[in-house]
Design goal:
It is built from nine helices and 14 strands. It has about 280 residues and is an alpha/beta fold. The chain has a domain of about 180 residues: 3-Layer(aba) Sandwich (Rossmann fold), CATH 3.40.50.
Length: about 280
């Protein structure tokens, strides 16, 4: 991936060693990468780091993304996904840093078929509620922010739906996948490159996904040959999922079609497995 240098520096990436963080490393090769060595839930540590370094841009890709785990560890979910972005926003306001933060389609209840940036959030699980708190605190404490809502994220260097389907397909004759939840799959590398573009845009909330709508089953069928459809009722989970979580972008162009992006990811995986 070839990227042009950005005009301002330095750039700091929190959560730089997660799935999205690795993609951001490629999009921002000049950045300082911070992982578990900086605890974003420690407001004193966050403020000290940002005031000492005063980066032009802070990108927060750190999050607790285990939707089921959030139901069991509610306090941790709200601390990492809610309070911590607030600490970062306060420190960014004081240090004069632009803040980029990633949020989720799960802040919506799924009763509408599509969601615009200005639609009212109404999360129906702990993960969505904790991410919504993060959005609210960022807007409360800072004015120079880009909140990027995305959905159904996949890519190298982390657990994701695509890799899970590939593994299950090898282990099972048939892989049941729900066919009544609708959304937009998004490739981490496409999102990371788009993030650079949004630095030049006005502050605010942006919906960024690959283009096209599908169910989880339709997504799975594009990955493996032995997926079979089932209903949400046949696949009970601790966390309630929205029926529709289709993010519509009104403030920037969507990414390329999801099938094209998925094809690139699968080709990358095949090359890595080749002898």
């Amino acid at each position: 991936m070839v990227v042009a240098p950005i005009k301002t520096s330095p750039v700091v990436i929190f959560g730089a060693f997660g799935m999205l963080g690795h993609a951001l490393q490629q999009a921002f090769p000049e950045a300082v990468y911070k992982g578990r060595d900086l605890d974003i839930t420690d407001d004193v540590m966050v403020r000290a780091f940002l005031m000492d370094n005063k980066p032009a841009i802070v990108i927060n890709a750190a999050a607790y993304t285990d939707v089921e785990g959030c139901e069991e560890k509610r306090e941790q979910a709200f601390e990492v996904n809610g309070m911590a972005p607030g600490y970062i926003a306060e420190a960014c306001h004081e240090s004069g840093s632009l803040l980029v933060h990633y949020s989720t389609d799960y802040i919506f209840n799924g009763e509408k078929e599509e969601y615009l940036e200005m639609d009212a959030p109404d999360p129906i699980n702990v993960y969505g509620a904790s991410k919504l708190l993060g959005e609210q605190l960022i807007q409360q404490y800072h004015d120079n922010y880009r909140i990027i809502r995305t959905s159904w994220l996949y890519g190298p260097h982390g657990r994701n739906f695509v890799d899970t389907m590939l593994t299950l397909s090898r282990q099972m004759d048939q892989v049941k996948v729900v066919n009544d939840q609708f959304g937009r799959p998004t490739y981490t590398y496409d999102l990371a490159v788009k993030t650079r573009d949004l630095l030049e845009n006005e502050p605010g909330i942006y919906h960024v996904t690959n283009e096209g709508i599908c169910t989880w089953y339709e997504f799975a069928k594009a990955i493996i040959p032995n997926a079979v459809p089932c209903s949400t009722g046949e696949f009970p989970r601790k966390a309630t999922r929205p029926k529709y979580s289709v993010l519509v972008s009104t403030r920037t162009r969507p990414l390329r079609p999801w099938r094209e992006a998925l094809g690139d990811y699968l080709m990358t995986k095949n090359r890595s497995l080749s002898p």
